[in-house]
Amino acid sequence: MPDRRRRTVLGRRASRRALREAATGYLLVLPALATFAVFVFYPLGRAIWLGLYRTSVSPNLPSTYVGPSQYASVVSSSAFLGSLWRTILFAVFTMPAGIALGIALAMLAHQRLRGIQVFRTVFSSTVATSTAVASVIFFTLLDPQIGLLSYWLGKKGGAGILSDPTFALPAVSVVSIWQNIGFTFILMSAALQAIPDTLLDAARLDGASSWHRFRSVTLPLLSPTVFFAIVVGIIGSFQAFGQIDILTQGGPNNHTMVLIYYIYQSAFVNNDYGLAAVASVVLFAILLVVTLVQFRFVERRVFYAT
Amino acid sequence: MRAAGTTGRLARKGARYLLLTGAAIIVAFPIYITIVNALLTPQQIAARPPTLFPLHPLWGSFSQAFGQAHLGIYLRNSAIMTVAITAAQLLTSVMAGYAFAFVRFPFRRAVFILCLATMMVPAEATIVPNRQTIVSFGWFNTFAALIVPFVASGIGTFLFRQAFLGVPRELRDAATLDGYGHLRFLVRIVLPLNRPMLAAFGIYSFLGAWNQYLWPLIVTDTTSTRTVQIGLKQLSALNVDQSNVIFAGTLLAALPIFVLLFAFQKQLVRGLTAGALKG
Questions:
Q1: Which of the listed CATH numbers 1.10.150.80, 3.20.20.80, 3.40.50.720, 1.10.3720.10 matches domain A77-305?
Q2: Measured between CB atoms, which of A113, A268, A276 is closest to B16?
Q3: B279, pLDDT greater than 50
Q4: Dist. CA A240–CA A59, nearest whole Å
Q5: Which residues 185-224 of A are in CB contact (within 8 Å) with B?
Q6: ipTM for the assembly
Q7: DSSP letter string over B82-114?
Q8: Partner-chain residue, chosen from B92, B246, B265, that has the shortest CB–CB distance to A31
Q9: How many CB atoms lie within 10 A of CB A298?
Q10: Which whole number is the average pLDDT over A110-120?
Q11: Residue A244 has pLDDT above 60, yes or no
Q12: Quick one: pLDDT at residue A158?
């Protein structure tokens, strides 16, 4: 029966091809998958696990299993809650102002004027400054002895603005707003350019004032971008570390001790890995919720658009 | 009537320029004053009223920052780390993205979702165990510690898969008929078609790596492996009588990204807004 034999040969050849295809697929995803396994999934599980062990006071003694109780005790501690509260404050100080300024600059630069490109370049220029660059610039500008801003604000001498419990967190926030203004400007400009001129022209013909046009045409059409900026802003606020480390190190008297700096200090200054692990897991959980909300929203928007 | 209309328009135009200029001055001031101060002596910087324009610029602060303050070494270290991470992320993301778009293998969907899930784990949440891993590998103070944890990217994998799915089916069929294997199809057809995405993600990845702060801070503590962002922190601790060196060093650290910004403005904008527009 030559026919049947041919079929099995063909079948074998096909399955061998499928096998080779599968091997190719796994070979291609292997580098990414292996990296994720070692540096994303394993440490995530390990952090949850470490949170169950209380680090001993002496570095030579092993940590002891205490179970979920450590989660409860850390999460209800005033140090942790304080750091969470200051992170929220930081987000509240930086996000609305940063987004409003970004929209304002984008509106300002969204007109046909000679030389407008120069202004656009200046407004987007702060994307080129890293957190460390921005922080060191302002660190020197706020220096109580030589800082120009301290001089202009009439705060020359003394301990300085960054050592003032009232002004430290707002000052760090201003630095972050400035550093992010370029990014927000670019984001909002791109969104503005996507708005069809015909819509605004129609509103103008209907006699809508410029404020009215902004309120009822531009702003609603910007809202998806604003939402994206809010999500990025929230995530960014929870990750803001460099500016704290360079400007205040969490001080004065913990007034800028945000969650991420609290984790850093617990782990790498106080060597309390158990405590740091618990705080890390909470950080993960908070950002997970934020991201899921974003995905939820995005899904709906994509659906709506098609 | 007509004249009034013209002056009115002129006045409005003038007001716009005034607003734009005011905003530009405020935004650019911190960088401007950094440039000015880098060219002054520490005594001039501290003098009041302040000097806002350097009449006799001095350039020595730059070589001091580059040499004595080790900025040269830090910049080199950052360059090595950043180029390696960017190249590796491009490679692994293209590979995985291609597999998810064009190669049939069992559990493809599950593996893809696993890759997506990494986007929900912020690097900050895993620093404690990851540092232990690095120490146990004997990688503390090595470039491996700076590079290896970041050789793959969830968002990169996702973006390339989405972009590759946009490659017309007919092209794939035609390539198969011509006897193209996966490698040839990827190199000859898929990659050339997706150059804008390669550029956008490359810049996104470059910026992210260059600006890293927390991770390099906890896995290095010597001059020979310290990156420029951490070097800046060291620099800012310099004495007030070397403040010009602090300003010069800050500029040196920012310079590569400024060059990138001007050279690749379009790609940079696309890279930065990729998440917003894709999402």
A1: 1.10.3720.10
A2: A113
A3: no
A4: 29
A5: 186-187, 190-191
A6: 0.89
A7: HHHHHHHHHHHHHHHHHHHHH---TTHHHHHHH
A8: B92
A9: 16
A10: 87
A11: yes
A12: 66
